Amino acid sequence: MEEVARFVLALEQPEVAEEVMHFLDRTGHARVVGSASDERQLLEAIRQLEPDAVVAAPTFIPSREELNGASLFALDTTQSVATLRRAIRGGAAGFYLWPAEREELAIAAARIRPPIEHEMDKRAPVIAVYGPRGGAGTTFVATHLAAAFARRGRSCVLVDLDVVFADASAAVGVPIDEPVRTVADLLPLGDEVSARHVNEVVWRHQQGFGVLLAPGDEVAAVTVRGHHYRAAVAAVRKTCDVVVLHVPRALDEIARTGLELSDRVLVVLGLDVLSFRDARRAITVAGIEERCAFVVNRARRSEIAPSDVERVFGVPPIAVIPAAAGVPEAQDHGQLLPLRGRVGRAIDRLARRVTEDA
Ligand SMILES: Nc1ncnc2c1ncn2[C@@H]1O[C@H](COP(=O)(O)OP(=O)(O)OP(=O)(O)O)[C@@H](O)[C@H]1O
Ligand SMILES: [Mg+2]
User: Fold this and answer.
1) Which of 120, 154, 183 lies at the terminal end of a domain, its last residue?
2) Contact, 86 vs 116, CB < 8 A?
3) Is 139 in the pocket of ligand 1 (CB under 6 A)?
4) Which atom of ligand 1 lies closest to the CA of 325?
5) Which atom of ligand 1 is nearest to the CA of 142?
6) Among protein residues, the one whose CA lies closest to atom 13 of ligand 1
7) How many CA atoms lie within 13 A of 69 on its CB side?
8) Could you tell me the CATH number of the domain that includes residue 330?
9) Measured from the CB, is residue 324 less than 6 Å from ligand 1?
10) From the CB of 131, is ligand 1 less than 6 Å away?
11) What is the CA(135)–ligand 1 centre distance, in A?
């Protein structure tokens, strides 16, 4: 296995690029495999060379998705608030003034590990959203939670395990007349799914999160199995900061696999007797007592109150999302609610609490 991390440079001044290249090569920890002098060339180099790291001028910083898992270092010969801000926004691991801070760059470059090691290391937390009672709001909570993570700057991939109905696709507005890639496209790879394969298949929502879509057709419903999702989720974890699983209600093999893979299971409850009863059963059957947190959804005045969660399950709910009139209509149109207003704020708080938790 190659021990040296592979770098691509994207710097404005050719003479600086030359110096940085020789300097990095001399450290013995980095090898410059490509150089770009504009944004287009940089994207092309990332695509073709799949570097472990990119050293870029602030003006050339690509988006996280475009980086395709590479680490990012910003480098310039001068520094201003605007360029620093751009570097931070682009997710740069550091900003280095050239040549004054080249030793710091060398230290950071030495920490970049070659791909295989690097891939094995990254394991984003997996958060399952699961509603034991139908209609409790699993799809609503899972899709909005993904958007809330994205807004908080945490790159998130929502994985739809609902192979038959693929409700997450409709809820986030995946166009029905466009061909899209789904988890079924990973099937030929068996259990050999890599982060790069996932990045090619994931559908991007305009609010900044990705979705590994479910096929939602009858053929795939019998061919996609739990182990396919296991391999897919293992690869998805290497591509983002947090994974949200949209788990269908029926505790079939795929749903159980999803729950098993999760670090945290958000159990979505309505304020009704069957929600509580079904949750208790599902938690026992799936064996997830230790990993559960409870989200009350569609809360409104009723005989059962959010405080009953603690009485029945021994812990207070991690979030209480109120019922709001606009939710069904937005969902029917494939639109996500803005993360303000009472419902939006409750979901944002949920994202924050889950993040602290993780
Ligand atoms: N907080 C809320 N306020 C008002 N309506 C809501 C709220 N949450 C969900 N709904 C609506 O309730 C219905 C069921 O929600 P959703 O589809 O998310 O539930 P589900 O648990 O995924 O259902 P299923 O069991 O069918 O998968 C939808 O019409 C949705 O728009
Ligand atoms: Mg649903």
Assistant:
1) 120
2) no
3) yes
4) 4
5) 18
6) 135
7) 29
8) 3.40.50.300
9) yes
10) yes
11) 5
Tens of pLDDT along the chain (358 residues)? 456 889 999 999 999 999 999 999 898 888 899 999 999 999 999 988 889 999 999 999 998 888 988 999 999 999 999 999 989 888 888 999 999 999 999 988 888 866 554 455 679 999 999 999 999 999 999 999 999 999 999 999 999 999 999 999 999 999 988 889 999 999 999 888 999 899 889 999 999 999 999 998 878 878 999 999 999 999 999 999 999 999 999 999 999 999 999 999 999 999 999 999 999 999 999 999 999 999 999 999 999 999 999 999 999 999 999 999 999 999 999 999 998 899 999 999 999 999 988 7
327 CB within 6 A, ligand 1: yes
DSSP-H helix ranges across the chain: 14-27, 39-49, 64-67, 81-89, 102-111, 115-121, 138-151, 167-171, 195-201, 218-223, 226-236, 253-261, 273-286, 308-313, 327-332, 341-357
Please give the number of the atom of ligand 1 that sits closest to the Cα of 331: 31
- Do 128 and 251 fall into the same domain? yes
φ, ψ at 134 (rounded to 5°): -55, 145
Same domain? For 35 and 91 the reply is yes
Q: Where does a domain end: 71, 103, 120? A: 120
Query: Phi/psi of residue 69, each to 5°?
Result: 90, -5
Residue with CA closest to ligand 1 atom 11: 328
| Ligand 1 pocket, residue 143 CB under 6 Å | no
In the reported structure, the alpha carbon of residue 156 is separated from the centroid of ligand 2 by a whole-number distance in angstroms of 19
Segments forming the whole domain that contains residue 300? 122-357
